[in-house]
Amino acid sequence: MSTISDDFLKLGVSLLINHQPADEIRATMERTMALRIMNYHHSQNVLKALARLTPSFGLAGTVVSLIKMFQHMQSIEAIAPHMGVAMMSTFYGVIIANLFMLPLSAKLEEHAIQSEALMHSTIEGIEAISHRDHPLRVQERVAGYPVAVDLTSVELGATSAATR
Questions:
Q1: Which are the contacts of 146, defined by CB distance < 8 A and separation ≥ 6?
Q2: 1-42 pLDDT, tens per residue?
Q3: Could you say which DSSP state residue 105 is in?
Q4: Where are the domains of the chain?
Q5: What DSSP string describes 31-72?
Q6: Are 29 and 12 in contact (CB under 8 A)?
Q7: 87-134: pLDDT as tens digits
Q8: d(Cα 157, Cα 139) in Å, to the nearest integer?
């Protein structure tokens, strides 16, 4: 068990080792999966909200800098530095939103989709093992598509080889 790095798989194997019923294993693993997916979506929503808000924060910085600029309207030399800061804050807000927050949110969404697929596959595999299905059936359920081998011939071939 200590060699298993995936906590979700470790949970399933632990439930199998403790001889839990198959329906309880599935319920526990689906509940854990739902919590993980919910955490992914929460984190993704936070990043999307930050992506929507950072241009507004940049605009607020622009307004503050413009107010400071209007206070120093005596000469063009006094206005220029404040104008630069005013434009840079809007620029930074847009850059942070579009180059950091939105790509991070998209990457997190992609990771959530992959994790959900892997967790569904893990649940199917653990449930198949719990039902003591044939290894090819376990592989079929984990892979998500049927294995093109007749299981009766495999089992018969194994028993006929053992009787020789």
A1: 140
A2: 678 888 988 999 999 989 999 899 999 999 999 999 999 999
A3: H
A4: 7-132
A5: HHHHHHHHHHHHHHHHHHHHHHHHHHHHHHHHHHHHHHHHHT
A6: yes
A7: 898 899 999 999 999 999 999 999 999 999 899 999 989 998 888 888
A8: 19
**How is the chain split among helix, strand and coil, in percent rounded to 5?**
85, 0, 15
Burial of residue 3, with CB atoms counted within 10 A of its CB: 0-12 exposed, 13-18 middle, 19 or more buried = exposed
Residue type at position 128: A
- Tell me, rounded to whole angstroms, the distance of Cα 80 from its chain centroid: 46
Q: How many contiguous H segments (helices) and E segments (strands) does the chain have?
A: 6, 0
Quick check: 100 and 53 in contact, CB under 8 A? Answer: no
Return the SS3 of 126. Answer: helix
Give the residue among 25, 33, 24 at the shortest CA–CA distance from 6.
33
d(CA 147, CA 124): 15
64 contact partners, CB below 8 Å, separation of at least 6 = 89
Q: What is the pTM of this model?
A: 0.70
- Look at residues 40, 36, 27 and name the one whose alpha carbon lies nearest to residue 8: 36
**Coil, strand or helix at 104:** helix
Here the tokens at position 13 are: 């194997």
